[in-house]
Design goal:
Elements: E1 3-7, H1 11-20, E2 25-30, E3 34-36, H2 41-46, H3 48-54, E4 55-57, H4 58-61, E5 65-69, E6 72-75, E7 79-82, E8 87-89, E9 92-95, H5 107-123, E10 126-130, H6 134-146, E11 151-156, H7 167-179, E12 183-186, E13 199-201, E14 207-209, E15 212-215, E16 255-257, H8 270-288, E17 306-310, E18 314-318, E19 323-326, H9 327-334, H10 339-345
Parallel strand pairs: 1-2, 1-9, 2-5, 9-16, 10-11, 10-15, 11-12
Antiparallel strand pairs: 3-4, 6-7, 7-8, 13-14, 17-18, 18-19
GO cellular component, one term: cytoplasm
Function: Putative FAD-dependent oxidoreductase.
Protein name: FAD/NAD(P)-binding domain-containing protein
Length: 352
């Protein structure tokens, strides 16, 4: 059987590994032993039982895949090397290392982190959230939903929250947060580095006192491990992996790049990463049986929708031609954050 190595066990990589596990010898290299449903993290921080549902060992949904829980550090034309000294040869390679982040290796350690974070949030009187994008807004929503007595402050450098939705929807999100007594400071930034006494200075000279703080701004692309490898010339602006219409890495016929790491011009979302994975799976299935390249599928951008939860019952949603807020987006997303759906897609029960 031909060998497929997938690097990155997030949204995109896990789908490819699962879909090809009976068509090839598949190896999944991930820096951790589990898949984590990223869009459930803010709820998991205030509800440890939710964390149990979003942190899923790769071995629970991959029946016929060799799982290597180590960081990939190098790639040549024929193999990938890992930090723990393994060399994994491939016929086809899929790079899906998303954004740079640090996670503990085991599910138990990760659940322990969520439990500890929950205790810290519970015991804090005041909380600072830096960043008013979807992650910051959703985290604030979760905290005020479960802990309405806490003083929550959000600092956002932009002129309005959720700048990718239209201004009416971003105003709705702002109004909702204010109605829950969140103090929102727009057009300001705050540097949290080196602050140990809980007093944070904003760029406009305001002082915010906070027992806990969370930085919810963007993370760099997870491609730094590629900069000295055979793929270095395929890294474009901001370290994004340049791919062609079939999602193959430019200049490399047997290497695919999918998910957040790619340079496809579109917002980076879970369902887009899923779509990339589906296209790569189709194309790999063609190549694995010696099919013609002309049979390969092309990836097409599609109209995007974005939903941001506001607590557990409300939300804002930006669809291609309309923006809505309130309990309809709340019903679609906020109640379960698509966690049951994602678990079912992996072949698992909605609950643990
Ligand atoms: C907090 C948060 C909330 C989000 N909320 C939403 C939302 O509500 N809706 C939505 O549509 N999208 C949301 N997203 C975005 C969505 O999660 C991403 O678009 C999606 O996860 C991208 O999938 P990916 O497979 O490209 O990367 P990821 O899912 O990030 O997976 C990357 C994987 O690569 C691994 N990895 C990285 N480097 C290495 C290495 N060198 N060696 C081995 N393994 C490596 C990581 O461990 C990780 O498992 C959210 C993201 C975050 C972080």
């Amino acid at each position: 059987m031909r060998r497929v190595v997938v690097v990155g066990g997030g949204v995109a990589g896990s789908i490819v590994a699962q879909s090809l596990q009976f068509c090839a010898d598949v190896v999944l290299i991930d820096q951790k032993e589990y898949f984590e449903i990223a869009w459930g993290t803010s709820r998991a921080m205030v509800m440890p039982s939710f964390a149990e549902r979003i942190v899923i060992n790769h071995s629970d949904y991959l029946r016929n895949v060799k799982i290597v829980a180590s960081t990939a550090v190098d790639v040549t034309d024929t193999q990938v090397s890992t930090a723990d000294g393994q060399s994994l040869p491939y016929d086809y390679l899929v790079i899906a290392t998303g954004h740079k982040d640090f996670f503990p290796k085991t599910r138990e350690e990760r659940l322990g982190q969520y439990e500890a974070e929950y205790e810290k949030i519970k015991s804090a009187n005041s909380i600072l959230i830096v960043g008013g994008g979807p992650t910051g807004v959703e985290l604030a929503g979760e905290i005020v939903y479960d802990f309405p007595e806490k003083k929550v402050t959000m600092v956002h450098s932009g002129a309005r929250l959720l700048e990718f939705v239209d201004s009416k929807a971003s105003q709705k999100a702002l109004d909702w947060l204010i109605s829950k007594n969140v103090e929102v400071l727009l057009g300001q930034s705050v540097n949290v580095d080196g602050v140990s006494d809980g007093h944070f200075q904003t760029s406009k000279g305001e002082t915010i006192k906070a027992d806990r703080h969370y930085v919810c701004t963007g993370k760099p692309v997870g491609s730094s491990w590629l900069t000295e490898t055979v793929l270095k010339d395929s890294l474009g602006i901001h370290g994004r992996l340049m791919v062609d219409e079939h999602l193959r890495v430019r200049g490399h016929k047997n290497v695919f790049g999918i998910g957040d790491i790619t340079d496809v011009k579109e917002r980076k979302h879970r369902y887009i990463a899923q779509k990339h994975a589906q296209v790569a799976v189709k194309n790999l299935k063609v190549l694995l049986v010696g099919g013609k390249e002309s049979k390969m599928a092309k990836y097409k951008n599609f109209l995007e929708a974005t939903l941001v939860s506001l607590g557990r019952k409300e939300g804002v949603a930006q669809f291609p031609f309309v923006t809505i807020s309130g309990c309809i987006p709340g019903k679609i997303k906020s109640e379960d954050l698509f966690v049951s759906k994602t678990r079912k897609q992996l072949g698992l029960k909605p609950d643990c």
